[in-house]
Design goal:
By secondary structure, the protein is α/β, with parallel strands linked by helices. The chain contains 20 helices and 22 strands. It has a seven-stranded mixed sheet with strand order 3-2-4-5-7-6-12. Strands 14-15-16-18-17 form a five-stranded parallel sheet, with helices on both faces.
């Protein structure tokens, strides 16, 4: 039976059919749906981990115990998981261990455009790259087999356009894979220097073995053009789909194992074409390897190092012309926090007080955009706390800067930064924007929500108690919609010489579907003060401000801002 399927779901199906028992992940677009789909199968265990490092460690532990296991994350999450990743290459596996990483060319939902293929090369871990949902399922099953055959973790690389595309997938039966026997081995699993020195030799020997073996892997294949041998293209992943459509006259070497590359097989292919091109998104990963092997090819002198490729971009580079319908010109719509977002009022207060704000990764990053324009720095998950601490230390403690972080991100990687600030006495003020979910990636639960990946009741971390346990004496909890309370807490925080934490609580407005009152205007003087909160439900006309009842959530922040009491609660 075949089904039109999201590629991320196909990865989950592949893991299930391969007999995987354990999956651990941290939500991150474009990888999130893998865990959300895997957990729906019977007889498996899946979880949201606090961060990607923990997710990989959980999967590695399950593998050593003898189970087939998987960890899933987006590309920047692989940075967080890099510590266990590199050493897992040394220890190898017992049950198959597969790590799925989803890159984001074009940065649709990410702060950078890094290329995860270099992690595979640096860590000496095999990487497979599928080009559609069926391949994603097949490659996932193959990855578990290769992991156990070669005693290695295996990486599967997706990109946004593959992860979020749909194609037909053949649904099969689950393989009954028994738990492998765990046998104690200090030299294999305990990576102290004496053991690691021996295991590094195993890694290098495995690298050589795999480099030879991949040349005969069926997933590395040649597709010959019937129209001659003028052009040959080496490509992988979604770029293969683009090349097939844009260059029907080209012969193609489709790479399935991007590390190790099947260099000998590609060299043989190159000898049969007049001109070889390497077409790949982001870095010249394949191109550099081929040129280092003495294979003449063209690549990044034609194509950009930045952004995504497309059929049209490839056509343009090869001087092909096709009729392209021009889209209608429409006004740009910059991203904005939702109407009723509990973060909006907090950023309004911070902007009003003219504070330097060290921001973090989440919906609240949008506090950097006009008209709030409140956020000064955004680096990576958890960085707001450490950067605020460094800012304070650099200015002798005299700076009026503040850190903001979401509840999920605080659990992910903000806790250690807070402990550091307390231990080293910087006196920072941290605002935890607690909206009771992981909002940016689609409302996933985390250890402070009281629910697990299945939506079942689970022990909940209490953020205020956690902060006190980190050594913070001054912890206050405020309603994120109460601007006066938020401002009072912020003023007290920045006046203190000790570390303080403000937990601004309100569930994400998209979580509460109950009917709410709508805000209305009467006697508006058109001063424009309410426009400064940047709510998409509010617009301004010559006769005054208008509040769209279809968008308004009744949060009341605009009424708090209005200096003339012209905005009141009405009936929807």
């Amino acid at each position: 039976m075949k089904e039109l399927m999201l590629t991320n779901r196909a990865v989950a199906l592949g893991a299930y059919e391969a007999g995987a028992r354990v999956l651990s992940a941290y939500p991150g677009t474009p990888s999130t749906e893998i865990a959300e789909n895997f957990v729906r199968f019977d007889g498996v265990y899946a979880e949201w981990a606090p961060n990607e490092k923990v997710a990989l460690e959980v999967a590695a532990g399950a593998s050593v115990a003898g189970a087939r296991a998987m960890a899933c994350m987006k590309h920047v999450g692989l940075n967080v998981a890099a510590d266990p990743l590199f050493t897992a290459a040394y220890t190898g596996v017992n049950g198959g261990l597969v790590i799925v990483v989803a890159d984001d060319p074009g940065m649709h939902s990410s702060q950078n455009e890094q290329d995860s293929r270099y992690y595979a090369r640096s860590a000496h871990i095999m990487m497979l790259e599928p080009s559609d949902a069926q391949e994603a399922k097949d490659f996932t099953k193959l990855a578990f087999e290769l992991s156990e055959k070669y005693d290695t973790p295996v990486l599967i690389r997706l990109t946004t356009r593959v992860a979020h595309s749909r194609s037909l997938v053949e649904i099969g039966e689950r393989e009954d894979v028994p738990l492998r026997l765990y046998e104690k081995s200090v030299t294999k699993y305990t990576m102290m220097p004496a053991s690691a020195i021996l295991r590094h030799q195993v890694v290098e020997e495995r690298d050589v073995e795999l480099a030879n073996a991949v040349n005969s892997f069926p997933i590395n294949k040649v597709e010959r053009s019937r129209r001659g041998n003028k052009i040959g293209v080496v490509c992988s992943g979604v770029v293969y789909q683009y090349v097939k459509e844009a260059l029907p006259d080209a012969s193609i070497f489709k790479v399935g194992t991007v590390y190790p590359l099947p260099v000998k097989a590609i060299a043989k292919f190159a000898s049969t074409v007049q001109q070889l091109y390497v077409i790949e998104e982001l870095e010249p990963f394949i191109e550099e390897k081929l040129k280092a092997a003495g294979i003449k090819c063209k690549g990044k002198e034609i194509f950009s190092l930045q952004g995504e490729l497309s059929v049209l971009k490839i056509l343009e580079k090869f001087n092909h012309s096709v009729p392209v319908p021009m889209p209608e010109k429409v006004p740009g719509r910059p991203p904005v926090m939702c109407a009723g977002c509990p973060h909006r009022g907090v950023f309004y207060v911070l902007s009003k007080l003219k504070l330097t704000v060290n921001g973090d990764i989440g919906c609240y990053t949008l506090g950097a955009t006009a008209p709030l324009s409140a956020v000064d720095t955004v680096l990576c998950m958890g960085a707001s706390v450490g950067m605020a601490h460094g800012f304070k230390k650099a200015t002798g403690g005299e700076s009026h800067n503040i850190a903001v972080i979401g509840d999920s991100t605080f659990i992910h990687s903000g806790i250690t930064g807070l402990i550091n600030a307390v231990y080293n006495e910087s006196g920072i003020t941290l605002i935890i924007l607690d909206n009771s979910t992981t909002g940016m990636t689609g409302h996933q639960d985390h250890p402070a929500t009281g629910k697990n990946l299945k939506g079942e009741k689970a022990p909940a971390v209490l953020l205020d108690d956690l902060c006190r346990a980190c050594g913070v004496k001054d912890v206050s909890v405020v309603d994120a919609y109460d601007l006066a309370a938020v401002e009072d807490a912020v003023r007290k925080g920045i006046a203190s010489k000790e570390v303080s934490v403000i937990i601004a609580q309100r569930p994400c407005v998209l979580l509460d579907k109950s009917p709410k009152p709508v805000m209305t205007t009467e006697g508006c003087r058109n001063c424009g003060k309410c426009m400064k909160i940047g709510c998409p439900a509010i617009s301004r006309t010559e006769s005054g401000v208008r509040i769209d009842p279809a968008q308004c959530t009744g949060c009341g922040v605009c009424a708090e801002v209005c200096p003339f009491g012209a905005i009141k609660e009405g009936v929807r």
